[in-house]
Amino acid sequence: MIWLLLIVALTAILSFAGFHSWHRFARAAQGERGYALPVDGPSVTQHTILDRVFADLVSDNLGKSGLMGLFDNADAFAARAYTAQKAGRSLDVMTYIWRTDTTGWLLMRDVLDAADRGVRVRLLLDDIYVQSFDPVFLSLSFHPNIEVRLFNPLRNRGPVIWRALETMLGLRRYNRRLHSKAWIADGRFGIVGGRNIGDTYFLKSGDPKIGQSAARISRDADLMLAGPAVREIETVFDGYWNLGLALPIRTLLPKLKVSLKRFRRHVARKTTSPNAKAFLTTVMDENTASKALIGRLRWTSSVRVLADPPEKAYGSRKTPWIAEQVHELIAAAQSDVSLITPYFVPDSAGLTELAALARRGKNVSLLTNALSASDNIFVHGAYRHYRVPLLASGAKIFEFSPSLEPGQKRDVIHSKVLIFDGKRAIVGSQNFDMRSTHTNAELGILFEEPELIAEIMAIFDKDTSPALAYSLSLQGKSVQWDVKREGMPRTMTAEPEATLPLRAISWAVGHLPFHSWL
Q1: Contact residues for 436 (Cβ-Cβ < 8 A; gap 6+)
Q2: Of residues 368, 364, 413, 432, the one with CA closest to residue 393
Q3: Is 448 helix (H, G, I), strand (E, B) or coil?
Q4: Where are the beta strands (DSSP E) in 424-514?
Q5: DSSP reduced 3-state for 166
Q6: Are 346 and 395 in contact (CB under 8 A)?
Q7: In Å, how far are 58, 104, 371, 389, 461 from 107, measured between CA atoms?
Q8: Which one-letter DSSP state was computed for residue 516?
Q9: 292 near 79, Cβ under 8 Å?
Q10: N or C terminus: fewer CB in 10 A for the chain?
Q11: What is each CA distance from 36 to 81, 91, 263, in whole angstroms?
Q12: What are the counts of helices (DSSP H) followed by strands (DSSP E) for the chain?
């Protein structure tokens, strides 16, 4: 017993010392404060291509924000690439993940080319997926026009054992992540939504031209914005950029030597591969890119940027968090609420509000991933704990699981969308789970625009159809799946198309007391 007490005491002392040591280091390592560049006024001496595009669009829409849904993976890539290629002043990007795969390298090349043209580039990346790729993002930061900052990074960048030790001793701090996604070009056009940077978010399932049939494809949702809302997003970006938890990557790796010249050659090799060329041929002809940027913008004065305040990263609550605003919208719904979320692990308030709405006779519908399609078995294990009370309230649950084609991985839902009364919607980065509610920093857009809402509802209807999803119901106190697939039972009482080991792990996780960490 005494040894256990000594271990606990030693761990507490080391954690306390590590916490204060990291914060002393962070104060010394912080970069200079930086802000979005002005888009007009006396300091702007030259207008960019995107300035001129924007001017043509807003002549009849003063005071309104333009919105366009980026629900097609190829359009989502084209919009980012096109704005990076046409930017002439600034490019501000924050993201949870930037993968070094085909599309990741292609967008990295566009960022590098923009910096070569004199564009000021700021990249704010969550540290959790950067650690194994430090040389890549460090190399970018050696360009005089690019600064890379990592959000809430580990101080140790060396052997895995030291990084793991720092993580465990500082788990309470390190658990807070930047999950927001924003892509802002010249302060004129912005992209907000659920997509990170990587093949899974930009490729299309089964497209033979891409040659990536083994990749898991994520079905996602972004919004492209123009007008006043973009300036609000820039303010959010600046708040996190200047936060004491966002540290320049060069201060974390002062001794690591890289060559920008050699890095350029590496980027060139990656972006001229057959896969890269085939992908660009598919999505980046001028007509496609222009259409992705301009063709479907709809203008409305009913746009509101929802952003977790930077102090949420410290656990502070000076202003409302997004989750509180979402709960208010759910409680105020008059007829129906539809949710699309890859991970559904609500806290008690979220579950209570949805169940109460359903009991009052309102339509509550949830679309999330089935176990057979889920990319996170542990989160799915937690989610299964909430199915019965939600179904018992009268809500509808659909689990996404499209048919599996030979040689393909099953597509997965990654969109984060809420629709209220068929009139208002939120598209953003926030999952309907406890991590997003209490821990991660999130960003979203609340809007009203009838044609765009109708487009989202059509996607919901399609993805909840029997061809793509199972419908769940209660048989007594047990969940039952309605399956309309050739060669399968009409109803099932176990997770359809999931192996026994997956079911076992999911069941076990559902009974463990750490749902808030998932």
Answers
A1: 179, 322, 323, 429, 430, 442
A2: 364
A3: coil
A4: 424-428, 432-433, 443-447, 469-475, 478-482, 491-492
A5: helix
A6: no
A7: 28, 5, 32, 44, 32
A8: G
A9: yes
A10: N
A11: 20, 9, 28
A12: 19, 23
Backbone angles phi, psi at 463, to 5 degrees: -75, -15
User: In this structure, what token pair is assigned to residue 359?
Assistant: 């009991």
For the chain, how far is it from start to end, CA to CA, in angstroms? 32
Number of other CB atoms surrounding residue 46 within 10 Å:
7
Bridge-partner residues for 364, per DSSP?
337
Q: Give the up-direction half-sphere exposure of residue 214: CA atoms within 13 A in the CB hemisphere.
A: 1
- Cα(306)–Cα(45) distance, integer angstroms: 32
- The model carries a pTM of 0.94
Q: Distance between CA 246 and CA 29 in Å, rounded?
A: 9
Cβ atoms within 10 Å of 287's Cβ, excluding its own: 8
Taking 3-state DSSP, the helix, strand and coil percentages for the chain, each rounded to the nearest 5, stand at: 45, 20, 35
C-alpha to C-alpha distance for 299 and 224, rounded to whole angstroms: 12
Instruction: State which amino acid sits at residue 350.
Output: G
In terms of DSSP bridges, do strands 491-492 and 478-482 run parallel, antiparallel, or are they unpaired? antiparallel
Check if the beta carbon of residue 444 is closer than 8 Å to that of residue 414: no
* 93 in Cβ contact with 122 (< 8 Å): yes
Distance CA 278, CA 203 (A): 11
